[in-house]
Amino acid sequence: MPIAKQILVVEDDASLAEWICDYLLDHGYGVTLASQGDYALEMIAEEQPDLVLLDVMIPVKNGFDVCKEAREFYSKPILFMTACSEDGDEIQGLEVGADDYLTKPIRPRVLLARIKALLRRASDEEVKQQLVFGSLVLNATAKSVTIDQQSVGLNANEFDVLWQLALKAGTIVSRIELVSQLRGIEYDGLDRSIDIRISRLRKKLQEAQSQAYKVKTVRGKGYLFCRDDSEPAS
C-alpha cells in the first residue's frame, strides 16, 4: 500500500484548520498542523512534508516570511491561502517562492485539485532528477549516489559520467558521445579524461560493494552501465 503524502497545514483559525485537516485525512493524506509561523518553520525543517498549505496571516511570522525562509532548505510545493482577492498577495507569494495560491473562502474540490496537481508535478520533477536501479540510487540535484542508503563518495566529474551512462542503462555509450556530452567538444582520439573518470568510478562502485550494476568496457565500442549478468544492447 503506498505511503500517504504528508501535508503540513499552517493556519491559526482553529475551526478552518480542523475542517481542512479532516477533509485531507478523509482523502488519504497524512496531516500535521501548525498555528504560527515560527513553529511552522521548525516543522518544515524537521518533517520535510510533501506539501505545505500556508496561510498568509498567521502569528509571529507571516506566511510570506515563512515561505521565504523555508525556501533556503525546502524545495517541495508550497500552496498559499489568502483572504485577499487582490493581485498583490498572489504576486508577493510567488516572488517569495510559493507554487500556487488559493483565495478564501476555500472551496474543498478546488483545494483538493490544486494539491493533487502540485504533488503530481513535484513527483514528475523528482523522477527526472532521480534514477533508481534496485538499491542503487542516483540523484541529479544533489549529484549523489547511494547503495543500500549508504553514500558513495563520487566527485562531480565521476557522477556526471555515471549519470550519462545510467540514462542509457543497458546500451553501449561511445567515448565520442561521452566526451561530447560532458565536455562539449569533439573527441580527438587523444583525450583520455573519460577513461580516468571511468576507472575511478568503477573502483568506487566496487569498494561500495555494488554487485548488481557495473560499468563495463566494451572493447572498440565504449562503455556500458548494466546488470552484472546482462548482455549489452547494440
Task: Reconstruct the topology from this structure.
Elements: E1 6-10, H1 14-26, E2 30-34, H2 37-47, E3 51-55, H3 63-70, E4 78-82, H4 87-95, E5 100-103, H5 108-129, E6 130-133, E7 136-139, E8 144-147, E9 150-152, H6 156-167, H7 175-183, H8 193-207, E10 213-218, E11 222-227
Parallel strand pairs: 1-2, 1-3, 3-4, 4-5
Antiparallel strand pairs: 6-7, 7-8, 8-9, 10-11
Can you walk through the features of this model?
The protein has 234 residues and is of the alpha/beta class. Helices cover 42% and strands 22% of the residues. The protein has eight helices and eleven strands. It has helices at 14-26, 37-47, 63-70, 87-95, 108-129, 156-167, 175-183, 193-207, and strands at 6-10, 30-34, 51-55, 78-82, 100-103, 130-133, 136-139, 144-147, 150-152, 213-218, 222-227. It has a five-stranded parallel β-sheet, with helices on both faces. A four-stranded antiparallel β-sheet has the order 6-7-8-9. Strands 10-11 form a two-stranded antiparallel sheet.
End-to-end Cα distance, whole Å, is 38 Å
- Output the strand order for the largest sheet: 2-1-3-4-5
Radius of gyration: 23 Å
- Give, in order, the helices and strands: EHEHEHEHEHEEEEHHHEE
Oligomer: single chain
Task: Estimate percent helicity.
Answer: 40-55%
Strand content: 15-25%
Largest sheet: 5 strands, parallel
Number of strand elements: 11
What structural category do the secondary elements indicate?
alpha/beta
